[in-house]
What does this fold into?
Amino acid sequence: MNKPIVRIYVLVVLLLATPVYFTSKWAVFDAEELEGKSANRRPLIEEQQIPRGSITTIDGALIAESLPEGGGRNPVYVRGYPEGSLFGNPVGYSFVDVGRTGIESAENDLLVGEDNEFASIIDQLRDEQPAGADITLTIDSEAQRIATQGLQSAISVPGTGAALVAIEPATGAVRTMASIPGFDPNAVQSDNTFKQLQSDESAPLLNRPTQSTYPPGSTMKVVTAAAALDSGEFEPSTVLNADSPKQISGIELQNSGGQSFGDIDMTTALTNSVNTYWAQVGEQLGPETMVTYMKRFGFYSDPELDYPGDQMAPSGVYNSDGDLVEEGFDVGRVAIGQGGAEGQLLATATQMAEVAAAVGNGGTLMEPTFLQQAKDPDGRTIEELGDGDEQDQVISEESATQLTEMMTNVTREGTASGLSVGGVEFAGKTGTAEIDLEGTNQPWFIAFAPSQDPQIAVAATIERCQGCFGGEVAGPIATDVVESLLSG
It folds into this structure.
């Protein structure tokens, strides 16, 4: 065979193969990616023909349902949200014109029946219309209502918001997730309303518990204490001088109110949230150890939550360019929930709830989840939470026991001593991040209860308030939610 014919043959094969490749790439190999793009409305249009599964809370409140519109054999199904704004965040919405968000997006395959291939095949053989699975969330509606109302009442600076997350330490079940301000997903169908929500400076479409990162203030001292105890470098009885001020990274650091404590042990330092003690602990541990333990708690990556990736943000140390950094930052100030231009500690409420949950669960962090149960249209259970999935062994059980006792002392006689949870002993840590020199603060509170048999862990924060403190503002909301869940 002569060379010119071979060249022509190869050219013809390439010309034929190229369109086949790209057609296959788009239609087969990249089909899932294309389907998942928010700009691709085809899956949404197709799914309008399917009665999307309902979404219900663990205590029976109907959150989302599909309502048929139009007559005939194949009506169009449109989503309805009976509870309105109470679950707008985090459940989200699902509409042809605006797409899907939140749990509606994360659990979409279940809700439209794509996760149950056997049932889909049977439906095709019977020439029956496919239907989605009904799902039950781990969220408790009464606790959600208490959290939402409490956070709303705590807002004192216009245009600001708040967040609260409650988790079962033993299973990772998310029992409450409240974001203020919220939105009514029913109203999203209106183009004008949707545009108004998008342009609203208070960002009601933002699910603050998973998307907003904030300086966590002194709640970070729980992470620092965990690293100190578990690394073997410190004990609850370790004594350091905690006078104020102290030179940390060459700059003076003050305790709250400028109070000097003299020589104190670690338990006293956590009980009274002593900055100069914990900054020294951070410096002695160093950035490498601190980052190692932060990663075990889940920092530096999105939470392992069944939620859309573009609606979650990683917690960690961020530099002035907005990049996560693992070295070169003021580790003493990061250890107390602060930082500087070279590295500012920022965390979500979900992350700080996971910190409390891991300590309460004997040092084991469970994967957080919203899904309690999913049932197909015939009532068969196709997914169930069970005992949950382990994410990481953050610290040893011994270290967790020591830290639990220290955090319990915070609620007995420390910065959270004015709080209570239905008469049961509980462990907690207050936090007050200073936003500016004008006295604007961001209050925090994390906790788990009961201390000796933790059932619920919680984190709550309010973005801005004047001259406020974590134990006074965030603490009562968090403890009200915990009390409701324990008594439910």
Summary: DSSP finds 17 helices and 23 strands in the chain. The domain at 141-184+205-372+386-487 is CATH 3.40.710.10 (Beta-lactamase). Confidence is low (pLDDT under 50) at residues 118-122. The longest helix spans residues 3-29.
